[in-house]
Amino acid sequence: MYVAQSQRLLYTSNMVSGGRHPKKPIADALKSVARDGLMVVEIHRGHRWGMLRCTVCGADLALHSTPRVPEDTARRVARFDVKHRHQPEEGQ
Ligand SMILES: [Zn+2]
């Protein structure tokens, strides 16, 4: 009973991420790429935390809550941002 309660508390505190990834390098990366056209979708299912989605082409990047190398995920977030800057082709 006691164990179940403490697990529930832990689970609850994990849930109150408020849109912020628990791993700082990833939270910072997501913050730095926040812009129109990119959307952070929280799922919280299993080890999946959510995903970063490009609203222009629909591509997404899976974000795990406890990746082995958070910095690696942070780099992938930055690359996803660069890759999905769908510039409108003006003046052509
Ligand atoms: Zn895209």
Structure overview:
The protein has 92 residues and is α+β, with helices and mostly antiparallel strands. It has a domain of 63 residues. 40% of the residues lie in helices and 22% in strands. The chain has a 3-stranded antiparallel sheet, with helices on one face. The structure holds zinc ion (ZN). Zinc ion binds next to loops.
Keywords:
single chain; 92 residues; alpha+beta; 3 helices; 3 strands; 22% strand; binds zinc ion
Sum this structure up briefly:
With 92 residues, this protein is of the alpha+beta class. It is 40% helix and 22% strand.
Task: Give the SSE layout.
Elements: H1 2-15, H2 24-32, E1 38-45, E2 48-54, E3 60-64, H3 70-83
Antiparallel strand pairs: 1-2, 2-3
Helix pairs in contact: 2-3
Bound molecules: zinc ion.
- What is the alpha-carbon Rg in Å? 16 Å
Q: What share of the residues does DSSP label as strand, in percent?
A: 15-25%
The string of secondary-structure elements, in order, is: HHEEEH
Largest sheet geometry: 3 strands, antiparallel
Mean pLDDT level: 84
The 3D shape can be described as elongated
Query: What's the tally of helices?
Result: 3
Outline the low-pLDDT stretches.
5-17
Strand count: 3
Strand order of the largest sheet: 1-2-3
Distance between the termini: 68 Å
**Which hetero ligands occur in this complex?**
zinc ion
Structural class: alpha+beta
Helix content: 40-55%
